[in-house]
Amino acid sequence: MTKILHLSDLHFGKHFLPVVGEAVLAQAESLSPDIIVISGDFTHRAKPKEFEAAQKFLQRLPPTPRVFVPGNHDVPLYRFWERLLNPHMLYQNYIADSLDSTLSIDNGIIVGLDSTAPYSAIKNGRLSRRQLQFCKQAFTGAPAGLFKVVVMHHHLVPAPTFERTRPMPQAKRALEAFTRMRVDVVLAGHLHRAYVGHSLDVYAGENRDHGIIIVQCGTTTSCRGRGLEREKNSFNLVTLTATDIQVEHYHYSEHNAAFGPVSQHVFRRQSGKNLTA
Question: How confident is the model at residue 94 (pLDDT cuts 50, 70, 90)?
Fold first, then answer.
């Protein structure tokens, strides 16, 4: 069994909520995750002081293996020359050296992909063919039964009951590639609106015997929640077992000054394939 703590959209800067941040640190300690995933937007405006604050926060998290990917807010928006010449310099200095990464765990492989596109689509993001090939190579030769997990910032499927839901450009191409790779789960953020679903519910694709579980995280520590999560903070706890994939969604409660589970989603595994319960 592997427990993944999935945080996203911290937005260190003027929108960061320190009290909620402290609750996350306490919860991370009590949940004892095996892996911590943060799917982008560590900062709000990619400023050195914001990255420094984010780095100090990360240092206080439990010393477990981690998979981090940048978000569009981790790239300078208004500092044009910095964005043109070295858009990820501060992210790589403070957060993680690699933009695309691979982590092997006891029962699976996790691939982190940088979906930011500083030169063409700073808001909506992109995944290049090179990155899809990187992902394919990471999964090639993996023994049958191992979980295959992808982490990225931008979303691949639309959120239900939310108008601002246009997926990342070329999302269908990415989903079809991930389906061919037999990816089990995609963890992402960006929308500040959490939801859990299945790729076959929204896009049948070219291979209908395998679907991908889509796990979106809201904003974990900022005041910028949207849609059904307006003014809410959230994170996910994903548990991978031999028989199923469990996703628990947590909301922050001001009354308790802590996060608590508000929903649970279970996806059964059969012969290495994911089926909704």
Answer: very high
Please work out, in degrees rounded to the nearest 5, the angle formed at the alpha carbon of residue 229 by the alpha carbons of 228 and 234.
140
Percent of all residues in the chain with a pLDDT value above 90, rounded to a whole number: 73
Average pLDDT, the chain: 91
* Nearest CA-CA partner of 9 in 174, 184, 144, 154: 154
Strand partners of residue 186: 150, 214
Comparing 76-85, 110-119, 222-231, the range with the smallest average pLDDT is 76-85
Q: Which residues are paired to 43 by β-bridges?
A: 12
